[in-house]
Amino acid sequence: MTESLISMAYVSRNMINGDFPAVVAEIVSAANVRNAARGITGALVCSQGYFAQVLEGDSDKLDDLFERIVRDPRHSEVQVLFSKPIAQRSFGGWGMASAGVVEDDTLIAAIHEVLQGEATVAAHDAAGEKTVALLGQLLRERSQFDRYGAAAE
User: Fold this and answer.
1) pLDDT digits over 70-113, tens only?
2) What is the CATH number of the domain that holds 14?
3) With 60 as the cut, is the pLDDT of residue 59 above it?
């Protein structure tokens, strides 16, 4: 059976209490181990109480992972922006890269609109594409990050 490569983007509201940067670092570290074992790659960005993430991999494996994300109490209001077949990965170098915490007003506004249920299908698509573009840009700019999203020494 051939692998069907899928890219999925979602947004959610951050429900983390406590040391947010430390919890995110733990999430990224654990995701790297699990994702590598499952052939999943991706990137995560956080902004003002929101998460935006792109995941890439086999359709069945992404479905299993997404079910766990939806049940994870650190997330609420999880909304898929897109899930589509791709020819190649955008974040193939990372099990789970972290682009860190950003203050991008257009991303925040797009995520807020999606989570408030006011977004059209076109707005979901635009928010998804904005998320992918922002993650790629941040990861390129932050060349001090290694393939696991941790600061290179």
Assistant:
1) 999 999 989 888 888 999 998 887 788 777 776 656 566 666 66
2) 3.30.70.100
3) yes
In Å, how far from its chain's centre is CA 115? Answer: 15
13 secondary structure, DSSP code: E
Backbone dihedral angles phi then psi of residue 112, each to the nearest 5 degrees:
-60, -45
Indicate whether 147 belongs to any domain.
no
* DSSP code string of 121-135: HHHHHHHHHHHHHHH
Residue at 146 is within a domain: no
Q: Which residue range is the domain that position 101 belongs to?
A: 5-141
Q: Report which of residues 113 and 147 the model is more confident about.
A: 113
Count the domains in the chain. Answer: 1
Give the separation between CA 129 and CA 33, rounded to whole angstroms. Answer: 27
Is 18 contained in some domain? yes
- Determine the residue type at 135: L
- Tell me which residue of 27, 152, 11 sits closest to 93, measured CA to CA: 152
CA proximity to 9, closest of 132, 144, 111, 110: 132
